[in-house]
TrEMBL record:
Domain Amidohydrolase: 340-418
EC assignment: 3.5.2.3
SUPFAM superfamilies listed in its UniProt record: Composite domain of metallo-dependent hydrolases, Metallo-dependent hydrolases
Record key words, sorted: Hydrolase, Pyrimidine biosynthesis, Zinc
InterPro entries to which the protein is assigned, alphabetical: Amidohydro_3, DHOase, DHOase/Allantoinase_Hydrolase, DHOase_cat, Metal-dep_hydrolase_composite, Metal_Hydrolase
GO MF annotation terms: allantoinase activity; dihydroorotase activity; metal ion binding
Protein name: Dihydroorotase
Pfam family, one: DHOase
Domain Dihydroorotase catalytic: 46-231
GO cellular component: cytoplasm
GO BP of this protein: purine nucleobase catabolic process; pyrimidine nucleotide biosynthetic process
Annotated CDD domains: DHOase_IIa (cd01317)
Length: 421
């Protein structure tokens, strides 16, 4: 099958361009840009056509908590959000820490999802921080990276051993830098707002302490390392030094920390409880500037489904996390409409950089690249209704907010998996 998408605003993060043109697809790959139309022709009416989003750090709750999110519903949500590759987290019940569990979730993903699903595996058995998993066997089974997610490996010797072994196999280690002692029990960021609300808080310095430790071990082992969810300005100088020193280090930030701040918690609104907690407006602006400059490489949804029962609790007791597969693109449009960055720069962080970090072919508008694409209108206004989301869980902080940016169609390997009705 051959398909030509014409009159499209091509967003190319690799060349940094935003131009009107056409794109031809055959047998699931891009075969031509701005060539004569062949096959079926679709007029994109001047809307934006970009590489599909590659989202690192999505929680799909199989096995163990399928009532919160399944591979089927996560795939539907991803397709509706323009996410063509979902890189899933291992913080399931049980953790994805053996080849057998990894093969089970990979099979479930193939059977149930219409977008690409790539699993990550735990770094330590049970995510308990005591014993390293069989990294080599898990790599052979298809693990894209290794992470204990928000459970910090507190034993420095164990973490160093994991990094050393990962380095020998060219495996990527993803960490969530925090000082676990300082962060324990915290619900918000320390400061005047936290004091007024009487909530347990943690200083952003906990993130810097955790990152500094990790980077020292990366310097010692020369491992490939990615900090998945930086949230504070105080951590950025350490990241800058590590990159300047030539370490194989990248970093990401979640869309919530780039578009929301601590004041959005308001009167104990638990849908705004995420981990790490939302920071100050100064921190948010510093993160946005770091993404625009390329210091922070990747924007992710950090999609974390939670059921109503775990959110309808006092703020301190409520579960952390928010769904974001469908809201990632319209939330990111806030950065575009605010003038913080143009669309190619935004898609560099949403698609190109995560694909490059994981060694994937996607994230590009180029001949020979997979035809994983999203067509969207960056200006289309709407009011977010969480009950219309495809995810099983509806815990989004953007509920009832006015947003801009609608996904019109999504293709994976040249096959249309979503079209706006």
């Amino acid at each position: 099958m051959t398909l030509t998408l014409t009159n499209a605003r091509l967003i190319n993060p690799e060349t940094g361009t935003d131009t009107i043109g056409s794109l031809t697809i055959k047998d699931g790959v891009i075969t031509g840009i701005n060539t004569a139309p062949v096959g079926d022709v679709v007029d994109c009416s001047g809307k934006c056509l970009a590489p599909g989003i590659v989202d690192i750090g999505v929680k799909v709750c199989e096995p163990g908590e399928r009532h919160k999110e399944s591979y089927r519903t996560a795939g539907l949500a991803a397709a509706a959000g323009g996410v063509t590759t979902v890189v899933t987290r291992p913080d399931t019940m049980p953790a994805i820490d053996s080849p057998e569990v990894l093969e089970f979730v990979a099979r479930r993903a193939r059977e149930a999802s219409q977008v690409r699903m790539i699993p990550m595996a735990a770094l330590t058995k049970g995510r308990d921080g005591r014993e390293m998993v069989e990294i080599g066997f898990l790599q052979d089974a298809g693990a894209a990276a290794f992470t204990d997610c928000d459970r910090v490996v507190t034993d420095t010797k164990v973490f160093a051993r994991c990094l050393t072994y990962a380095r020998s196999l060219n495996a990527l280690v993803i960490a969530h830098p925090q000082d676990p002692v300082m962060s324990k029990g915290a619900a918000v960021t320390s400061g005047k707002f936290a004091s007024l609300r009487g909530l347990p808080a943690v200083s952003p310095m906990a993130e810097r302490i955790g990152l500094e430790r990790d980077l020292a071990l990366v310097e010692m082992t020369n491992a490939a390392y990615h900090a998945d969810n930086l949230s504070s300005a105080t951590a950025l100088p350490a990241l800058e030094r590590a990159k300047a020193a030539g370490l194989d280090v990248t970093a990401g930030a979640s869309i919530h920390h780039l578009t929301l701040n601590e004041l959005d918690v308001g009167n104990y609104r638990t849908f705004f409880k995420v981990k790490p907690p939302l920071r100050s407006e100064d921190d948010r602006k510093a993160l946005v500037a770091a993404v625009a400059s390329g210091l922070i490489d990747i924007i992710s949804s950090m999609h974390t489904p939670q059921d109503e029962e775990s959110k309808r609790l006092p703020y301190e007791e409520a579960a952390s996390g928010a769904v974001a597969l469908e809201t990632l693109l319209p939330a990111a449009m806030r950065l575009y409409h605010a003038g913080d960055m143009d669309l190619p720069t935004l898609w560099r962080a949403l698609s190109l950089n995560p694909a490059k970090r994981l060694g994937l072919d996607g994230g590009r508008l180029a001949e020979g690249a997979p035809a994983d694409l999203v067509l969207f209108d960056p200006d289309a206004p709407f009011v977010m209704d969480r009950f219309k989301l495809q995810s099983k869980s509806k815990n989004t902080p953007f509920d009832e907010q006015r947003m801009q940016g609608k996904v019109l169609a999504t293709w994976v390997g040249g096959k249309e998996v979503f079209r706006k009705g």
